[in-house]
Amino acid sequence: MMIVPELWREARRHPWLLTGSILLLLLVFATHLLQALALAWSLAAFVRGDAAGAVGGIGAILVIGLLRMLLTLVQGDVASRLGGRVREDLRGAAVAAVLVPERLHDARLRDGSTQLALGDGIDGTDAYVSKYIPAVMQLVVGSVVAVCLVAVLSPLIALCVAAGILLAVLGPLLWKRMLARRGFEHWDSYETLSGDLLEALRGMSTLRALGDVPATRSRLHTRSEALRAATERVMRSSLAETAITDFAVQAGVVIAAGLAVVSVMTGQPPAVEVYALLLLSSEAFRPVRELSRHWHAGFLGLTAVPGLAALGAFRRSPAAATEHETTPATSADVLRISGLSYRYPGADHDVLRGIELHAERGQVHAIAGPSGAGKSTLFDLVLGFLPATAGTVELDGRPLHPSDVAVVSQRPVLFAGTIRENVDLFDAGQQALEHACAAAGVLDEIRAIPEGFDAMVAEAGTSLSGGQRQRLALARALLAHRPVLLVDEPTSALDDRSALTVAETLERVAAERIVLMISHRPEALARVADVRVLRDGVLVKAAS
Fold it and tell me: What are the record keywords, sorted (predicted)?
């Protein structure tokens, strides 16, 4: 038995589902005990030549079997819902924990490892939560009930059965602990290989151009061999643990059967008690067998727990919950940045110093400056991705929340799916979708595609040009209807005509929301009345 406190706490967040899953599984186990008694009665009646008693016992067995089938289906549904809820909670918490300044700017983190933890790692917890936890409670409660029933018929046999159960549960604990340690090593190897593989896939063209494919192949081979070796170690430990459990179960059943046979030879109990002892002794070990089976099913989720804990999947911040529940404003008049400063960890000077900005709705506000001046850092501060060293960012006199801001980044992210699914994340409807795409200057191109809005977009948007990706991202931001729009180099991948369309769009958008733009292109800045220049960490008004 291996108790993982983090996963038990997550399961307890859904008490009705957890309780229902456990109670239903106990009822399923109760049907096994009742069926054992009914079978003992039927066999005893058959031996006595009591045909009516035997038929009645068989009828009871069939009815109990049908009842167990129904209870199993209901229990499986409740357990599945419990596992699904825990997966949703963990994935939401893990994603929120990953999107924090420390992680977004931590060069040691690898996308492949994070992706694996958020995917396979969280999915792997399902079996532990939905199957293993109820099985533990079935062992604790069900085995005690079964041993008590055996004790009514024979205290000595009940003592032997109880000893066998204890050996089956406690014996493998040392093996399980070693298996858990090796499992963590297995997960580390899994994460490392996943990170290397994702990086190799992303940079395949570069690797081929540099002639580094053989070295990459060798590195992936080494990682694969490490994963194979870790997997074999886990399997060997698992086989040993299974052997201990099976030995304890079989030994307990054999000893109970032997004692029952001895009692028959001495002529002590009636036949029905002998059959009941044999069958109940076997059923008493059923929770142990099921626990062992579910342990192996939930092993991947168990080994992923340290990685998920490192991501912060098990932390629940009240501040984060409040922020998540904050209702974004639909409109605002003024974005005010006062005395904003920031210094990267380990740096000896501030990258931004005393930034002052008063941006009102009604016009586009632009920030220019040389590369490395801190423009993107300023955006990260406004978005809350970085904690300011000093200063405030307020919207209409109150702190700005991330839910108040829509963003169009220089390298927008698109997902595998249709154009509609990538743009209309808010179920705004066809008319609003077309209006936003028209405002972003991409509607005509979408209509020119045979499938239109139902055309598929490749993963990361690679089937589209850079300009199309940027304009789709702008349309998506417009549909968000948030009071502040941050735009990073909106025309960098566009031709002059499309750039003019986007510039005109931003001017129209500024009538309804506060628009703050980063741009280097003179033609994009030419239409903007309020241009600030960020130089040496200080934001100053641009010369007219």
Answer: ATP-binding, Nucleotide-binding
